[in-house]
Amino acid sequence: MTPHPPPHIANVAPDHDIVVVGFGPVGSTLAALLARRGLRVLVVDRETEIFPLPRAAHFDHEVMRVLQELGCVDEVGPATILNPGMEFVTAAGEVLLAVHSGDRTPSGWPASILFHQPDLELVLRDVAERSGAEIRLGVGVSNVTDRGDHVLISFADATETTASYVVACDGARSTVRKQLDISMLDLGFEEPWLVTDLVLADDADRPSAFTLQVCDPLRPTTLVPMPPPRFRFEFMLLPADDPASISSPESVASLLTPWMNAGAATVERAAVYSFHGLIATEWRRGRVLLAGDAAHQTPPFLGQGMCSGIRDAQNLAWKLARVLHGTSPDALLDTYQLEREPQVRNIIQLAVDLGRVICTTDPEAAAQRDAGMLAARAAGGGTMGQALMPSLPEGPLVTLGAGGQAHQPVIDGVRLDDLAGDRFVVALRSAAQRSNPGVAFWSARDALILDADTTPEVAKLLDALAADAVVVRPDRYVLCAGAEIGEPDATLRSMLTC
Ligand SMILES: Cc1cc2nc3c(=O)[nH]c(=O)nc-3n(C[C@H](O)[C@H](O)[C@H](O)COP(=O)(O)OP(=O)(O)OC[C@H]3O[C@@H](n4cnc5c(N)ncnc54)[C@H](O)[C@@H]3O)c2cc1C
What we know:
CATH class of the largest domain: Alpha Beta
Strand order of the largest sheet: 19-16-12-15-14-13-5-6-20
CATH topology of the largest domain: FAD/NAD(P)-binding domain
CATH architecture of the largest domain: 3-Layer(bba) Sandwich
Number of domains: 3
Strand content: 25-35%
Bound molecules: flavin-adenine dinucleotide
């Protein structure tokens, strides 16, 4: 930390490679991923403690894959339970739509996991620290100034530091985003809900094993079974509700009455949250990038807000590492928003669409919705496996038809990602393909090259894409899949210089 920086700091090496603003779940994941890649990371948070109450309750198998990379799956385990799935039901309890968590995911991890956010954040902070990230707590960032070749970061206590890049993971009210005057595009959903977290006296009293979306026009309600002893109810506010008094003990007890004996639980928190769909118009301004809630916010009906932020971190980490290690140009960072924004936008849109189904309060419209969905179920529809997240769009680092999460085979008892580390993976159907000129490009970039003749488990990765040759990126997304590894085009060569 430099209390009085020299007036002309140009040509002086920045104090840090990266300053991560915000040590929430996204900032801690990013700090850990970057520090593990050997970068000099400072992560700062204006609070000294983790926010003690959960907001997120669910994460998916892709997040599990990131936790695998961070080596903390076993530590996170006690804070989690498996989610059997989510059901949309009528006020009378008839199932309108069932989304059941299948046990097959590309990553090999369970599709859907319920967790206690403060416990996960504790582990992530610990991983960031032991990975070598420097941590500064209890002082907020007040300003970031892009000076062209580095960023000057100013703190609320008048100290300053410098970094090559800044990533703002400072949450929905992001100071950095506001300071840069980056606007949020409203995806057209705004509903206040009362979030009520309970600690059950006896876990046998849990009102549901499934996440339930109760599409009751008189009171749309969500039930979320968090890890024992906790259970969450979310109640949509109606026009007649007073947002100031709905969280009172009497009001909460009355809302809980149809579901359970309110005396069988302690209310840990009852607070009104506004559920909305927002997305930042710029995710990168020069040397400053936005990630997590600072860049996008989604209604929680799919449980994807934090998951999306962790995917931001996963997308950024390998790219920032390549740029700072000099193996890619700064332009690689322009692919961050190109890739992530369409994926996040699709997820938010899906959550908004589901939200509109759940939040219907017009009894006639609700009756029509129920009749249509019940008829679809009677005709054999209305049940789906865990929805896979949308792929990355085609672009400089994703060829047409690629962009999904790669299958993760287990090779001689070791998961593929653990073998690959931060490298690209080239998977080939036969050993003969190794002499293909396209493969040489990846060999020169230290890719892990595997062929199904020598390593039969790799066939699963190829089969999942109906391909004989696949390149997987360090963030486990598929770069290209086809009959052969083609010669890289000029754009790809320019992005991955060595
Ligand atoms: C009711 C509810 C239910 C949800 N359910 C789910 C779910 O099931 N699954 C899911 O994936 N997501 C869910 N979410 C969303 C999820 O909680 C958020 O997406 C996630 O917490 C965002 O993480 P973040 O690290 O981006 O931001 P935050 O968690 O907000 O962390 C930001 C950090 O930045 C710090 N900070 C802020 N300003 C500054 C500054 N100027 N200087 C330094 N530090 C600063 C803050 O102190 C904080 O620690 C839910 C949200 C709500 C409200």
